[in-house]
């Protein structure tokens, strides 16, 4: 089946934390096909390039897809001003998400999300919670105002919240609470590059998967904007080979 | 409506082709539509050896445009011929190979490599890629160097050669005339304009390579001006490009002096850009009282 | 916050001035706000005699930009000094005169004419206007010609001379070095890029002059690149321009190498563009941890 | 008093003829100050240059200003999609309109409007109808589908409608009915340049005023984009000296 451009109808737009927007979109096909970690590639009128935004939740019964984004520049600012009833032009679900086939029953899984990397980790947590596994989540935010989804996580995982400035939960970086989380079988992480570097270094002997970001041109694998060197002296494209990679495979 | 155009080595069912570097080797966009609909496909640049390209970030957005400094990442000409060309050849479309290099010898090597295959119909000689530091850029800005590489490639290749001009020059007509004299079968213009964007928090260039090539609608007026100027003084055909995203844009390029066009950056915004333009072209031409693509070409002020 | 910058001949209360040709002689915009708020005003080009300019249409819109071919319409230098300068001098701001011409003699005539008045603080030597056919353009694209006219004007004038460079060249650094050697006190860059737009119903250029100068946000990446390149190799101050419409844009120009900036096309979209930018500048600089305009200049990679 | 940028609220948007939009905007100041023939200079987000659109009606009691425009390109297309409640950024009223001080009681006035030149002529007609004068209006349109404001004119003027293709009213150009309109003291005209050329040539011995169009940069008199040669070997700026000129003064 050929890939499509989707016109997704905006169902709801909410500010759920400082500079953080949750947007629910109607698109049954995408709501049914998505693997956690995949992203939508959104066209914002007036901007040359599409914006990649991870899928944070799907509701395949209602046919909806939820995204969360932080207002950082012109594109996300424009998107934040959308009203229910308007439509967003999207490609997706793009990329390869978190593969959970090798997660065995009874495993203890560490989930590490930082800032706007939390939403795809939530999507993954929901998916994993359908399996008989034990989930531990470490969620890092800049400060108290930026915290979101804590309760949602608490329902399905043992949850640690960390803020850089200590204004909420533990103080410091996500890695600072790794000593408290106990043993685990594999980990999954998404967040800013410095965080991922710290996480993969700290957990270098553990099996893990990380979701990465890079500035994109096409978002579909054609333009070579988003390449990442791999340990075998080759490269991968974040938009189409990733954004999720084995922590052992890539060079951060 | 008849959209066909005939160019040296190429009979195109329509004048629309994706621009080099903006369409890979077609694989990704073949998941969106049937590539047989395209007039031709211009492949990503080929160099002698595999290249990994520049560090990231490689792209940045600008007003009505973007900067890129991919750095000619490609698997090398042999693997392109072995793996990419056959897959593309399965479609009913023409194939144009984009030839790059950092030395005269490399250009000649890559160009002659394409003699091996019957499935490539023309070469686009990329003397203008602004993102290669080793010397590629001089070929595109010095008429004597441009002449030399054009002659050498013409001699080495048995395919028609379209020389892709850089807009980063004082006198585009001089460049066009130089490569025409050297035996170019056609021109391809324009490549990107060298630009830069800074990352405000650090005050440093946002793109790792510092400068990048500016493409997209922002540069269309420069492309139109250069094609128009060259068309007055040079008679070989021109594949026009630079900011095309609608059928009206295509008409403007044809009127200015292009004989076919390539669509680059627009593919990123709309993966269906090329076919959407092909679909809209007949009605657009009709609205402006043209009966075919050839009619536009025939009726422009200065005849080719 | 301290927004002051000191340049040869100019102590600017802030680094923002309207660009030549986009603000007339200030009269019209003085109906929107108090011109004393501006760092300086750069006047519309002055020539020896009155000029009526090109036929209309003289402007065309493009993606994130516009084309213009006004053709240096102005009342002539004597009437500018008699009628326009005194009115502008009533404001607490610096006045920069833009000097144009079609011959070396005309440049010298116009430049020396401004010796008559005490109210003009610097000259911007426009060797780059792409819309004058008689030869103005060569001064801006040939380093030797640029040197000659710069030396001649420096000799004739007792004001600091900022030479306004054309971006329509292969090598902007070479041009900048040439005029620096010839004694320029500063640079002003960039002028417009030569572009064209066609009128689809006729297939002819929309602007009567055929080509026009491209300005606006579309050209900002090219301006930033050129200023950055020149700043690495040339030490005289730069008045930067090309697509500025926000305080962030100003910061980017300062980081790239400009010491002050001019705002052109943005005035047309927003008549308050200059003062809106001045108002926003302190907070913008603060957001990026700068303490003053001079702090941005001092902290950029390469020191002037 | 300093000039301003106005945020005008959209009150109503209607398609009143083929490709012809009537838009009512709320802005009391402008509604009170406007002289017929003046224009608004409208910012349409996404476009570099503002769009000049004549004022067609004002209602100073309700504080509204009505404009009429034809959808010809991207800017007017975007404007046509505006919904009530949205705001339009406008400069104005710009330019010098139709001066009617020298119109004497009892005069017979010929009004000639073509296409989208009809609205400012309507505004003028309304203003003149407050004086004790006799009005004759000749309105030209491409074809029947494009005709608008006929009834409104009939209330205040002897009205002739002309269509190029004869699908409504008289067939031909506005000048074709000049023989029928009888004597008049002065005329006022607005429409496309070819029409104005024909009108001024036909009526070269009559006192008249014409409203002109040109592509604009600034719209306020600063950039010299919109100049027009005058008979005294000088020039005028359409945006600030005009758009209305004495027919004898300018060279069309
Ligand atoms: C695979 C992937 C998934 C992402 N998922 C999310 C998400 O779920 N929520 C969220 O808030 N953000 C996410 N991001 C980051 C998001 O794409 C950027 O924040 C957004 O594009 C910024 O757009 P802007 O116009 O607001 O900012 P601007 O800085 O004005 O954008 C300018 C250009 O830079 C690009 N850009 C800027 N920051 C980034 C970045 N961090 N990564 C990639 N491109 C960038 C933009 O896409 C645009 O092309 C994701 C990025 C990637 C690559
Ligand atoms: C003083 C004045 C009053 C006007 N009043 C009206 C009116 O009441 N109703 C109406 O429908 N139109 C009027 N026009 C014409 C109107 O300005 C244009 O139709 C409109 O700007 C087209 O914009 P666009 O984006 O749809 O078209 P595009 O063709 O995409 O516009 C591209 C550029 O060309 C300019 N342009 C295109 N056509 C014209 C034109 N005829 N005159 C001036 N600039 C043009 C645009 O402003 C823009 O800068 C008036 C023009 C002037 C000068
Ligand atoms: C991401 C990207 C990669 C490109 N790579 C190449 C290339 O490999 N060879 C080449 O000749 N041109 C390359 N170009 C230039 C385009 O082929 C085209 O000339 C230019 O982008 C102008 O067209 P556009 O405005 O439609 O994109 C590249 C452009 C982009 C945006
Ligand atoms: C309508 C118009 C008229 C101009 N006239 C002049 C001029 O007389 N002299 C000059 O040196 N530059 C002139 N310029 C160039 C501007 O000063 C400026 O260099 C250029 O527009 C880039 O800045 P911008 O993108 O902010 O407009 C003109 C530009 C425009 C748009
Ligand atoms: S963004 Fe184009 S290959 Fe990934
Ligand atoms: S539009 Fe600028 S002077 Fe009239």
Key terms:
heterotetramer; A: 252 residues; alpha/beta; Elongation Factor Tu (Ef-tu), domain 3; Rossmann fold; 2 domains; 7-stranded mixed sheet; 6-stranded antiparallel β-barrel; 6 helices; 15 strands; B: 304 residues; TIM Barrel; 8-stranded parallel sheet; 4-stranded antiparallel sheet; 10 helices; 16 strands; 34% helix; 19% strand; globular; binds flavin-adenine dinucleotide; binds flavin mononucleotide; binds FE2/S2 (inorganic) cluster; iron-sulfur (chains A, D)
Q: How large, in whole angstroms, is the Cα Rg of chain B?
A: 18 Å
Q: Distance N terminus to C terminus of chain B?
A: 22 Å
Number of helices, where a helix is a run of at least 4 consecutive DSSP H or I residues of chain B: 10
CATH fold-level topology of the largest domain in chain A: Rossmann fold
Number of strands of chain B: 16
The main pleated sheet of chain B reads as: 8 strands, parallel
- Quaternary structure state of the chains depicted: heterotetramer
3D shape of chain A? globular
Report on the structure:
The complex is a heterotetramer, with 2 copies of chain A (252 residues) and 2 copies of chain B (304 residues). With 252 residues, chain A is of the alpha/beta class. Chain A folds into 2 domains: 5-93, Beta Barrel (Elongation Factor Tu (Ef-tu), domain 3); 108-246, Rossmann fold (3-Layer(aba) Sandwich). Chain A has 6 helices and 15 strands. In chain A, helix 3 links the parallel strand 7 and strand 8 (134-141). Chain B has a single domain (5-53, 70-192, 216-299), classed as Alpha-Beta Barrel (TIM Barrel), CATH 3.20.20.70. Chain B has helices at residues 77-89, 104-113, 136-141, 143-156, 172-181, 220-233, 247-256, 266-269, 273-287, 293-299; strands spanning 5-7, 10-12, 16-18, 40-42, 59-62, 65-68, 94-99, 122-126, 161-164, 186-189, 193-195, 198-199, 204-205, 212-215, 238-240, 260-263. Chain B has 10 helices and 16 strands. Chain B is of the alpha/beta class and 304 residues long. Chain B has an 8-stranded parallel sheet. Chain B has a 4-stranded antiparallel sheet with strand order 5-6-14-11, with no helix packed on it. In chain B, strands 1-2 form a two-stranded antiparallel sheet. In chain B, strand 12 (198-199) and strand 13 form a beta hairpin. Helix content of chain B is 34%, strand content 19%. Chain B starts with a strand and ends in a 5-residue tail after the last helix. Classes of the chains: A alpha/beta (252), B alpha/beta (304). Chains in contact: A-B, B-C, C-D. Chain B binds chain C through residues 62-65, 67, 141, 168-170, 193-198, 200-201, 203-205, 210-212, 214, 216-222, 224-225, 228, 243, 248, 251-252, 255-256, 288, 296, 299-301, and chain C through 62-65, 67, 141, 168-170, 193-198, 200-201, 203-205, 210-212, 214, 216-222, 224-225, 228, 243, 248, 251-252, 255-256, 288, 296, 299-301. One flavin-adenine dinucleotide (FAD) is lined by residues 39, 49, 51-54, 68-70, 72-76, 116, 119, 213-216, 243 of chain D.
């Amino acid at each position: 089946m050929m890939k499509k451009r989707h016109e997704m109808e905006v169902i709801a737009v909410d500010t759920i934390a400082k500079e953080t927007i949750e947007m629910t979109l109607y698109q049954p096909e995408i709501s049914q096909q998505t693997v956690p970690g995949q992203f939508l590639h959104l066209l914002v009128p007036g901007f040359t390039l599409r914006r990649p935004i991870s899928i944070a939740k799907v509701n395949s019964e209602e046919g909806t897809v939820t995204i969360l984004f932080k207002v950082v520049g012109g594109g996300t600012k424009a998107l934040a001003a959308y009203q229910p009833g308007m439509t967003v032009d999207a490609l997706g679900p793009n990329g390869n998400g978190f593969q959970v086939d090798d997660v065995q029953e009874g495993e203890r899984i560490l989930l590490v999300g930082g800032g706007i990397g939390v939403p795809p980790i939530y999507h993954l947590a929901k998916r994993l919670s359908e399996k008989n596994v034990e989930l531990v989540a470490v969620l890092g935010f800049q400060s108290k105002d930026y915290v979101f989804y804590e309760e949602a996580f608490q329902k399905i995982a043992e949850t640690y919240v960390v803020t850089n400035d200590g204004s909420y939960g533990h103080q410091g970086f996500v890695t600072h609470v790794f000593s408290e989380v106990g043993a685990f079988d594999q980990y999954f992480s998404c967040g800013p590059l410095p965080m991922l570097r710290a996480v993969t270094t700290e957990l270098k002997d553990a099996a893990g998967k990380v979701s990465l970001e890079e500035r994109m041109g096409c978002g579909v694998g054609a333009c070579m904007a988003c390449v990442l060197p791999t340990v075998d002296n080759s490269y991968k494209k974040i938009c189409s080979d990733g954004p999720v990679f084995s922590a052992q495979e890539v060079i951060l | 409506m008849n959209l066909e155009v005939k160019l040296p080595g190429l009979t195109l069912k329509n004048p629309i082709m994706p621009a080099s570097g903006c369409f890979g080797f077609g694989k990704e966009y073949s998941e969106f539509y049937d590539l047989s609909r395209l007039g031709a496909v211009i492949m990503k640049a080929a160099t002698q050896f595999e290249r990994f390209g520049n560090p990231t970030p490689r792209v940045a957005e600008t007003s009505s445009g973007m900067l890129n400094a991919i750095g000619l990442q490609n698997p090398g000409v042999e693997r392109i011929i072995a793996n990419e060309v056959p897959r593309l050849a399965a479609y009913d479309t023409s194939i144009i190979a984009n030839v790059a290099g950092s030395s005269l010898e490399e250009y000649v090597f890559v160009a002659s490599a394409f003699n091996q295959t019957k499935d490539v119909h023309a070469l686009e000689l990329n003397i203008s890629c602004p993102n290669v530091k080793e010397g590629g850029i001089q070929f595109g800005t010095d008429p004597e160097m441009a002449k030399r590489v054009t002659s050498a490639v013409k001699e080495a290749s048995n395919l028609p050669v379209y020389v892709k001009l850089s807009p980063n020059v004082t006198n585009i007509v001089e460049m066009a005339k130089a490569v025409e004299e050297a035996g170019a079968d056609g021109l391809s213009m324009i490549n990107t304009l060298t630009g830069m964007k800074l990352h405000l928090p650090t005050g440093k260039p946002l793109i790792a390579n510092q400068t990048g090539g500016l493409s997209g609608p922002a540069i269309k007026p420069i492309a139109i001006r250069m094609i128009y100027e060259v068309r007055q003084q040079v008679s070989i055909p021109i594949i026009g490009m630079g900011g095309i995203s609608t059928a009206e844009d295509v008409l403007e390029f044809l009127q200015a002096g292009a004989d076919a066009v390539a669509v680059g950056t627009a593919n990123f915004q709309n993966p269906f850009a090329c076919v959407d333009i092909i679909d809209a072209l007949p009605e657009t031409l009709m609205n402006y009282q043209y009966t075919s693509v050839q009619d536009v070409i025939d009726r422009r002020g200065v005849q080719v």
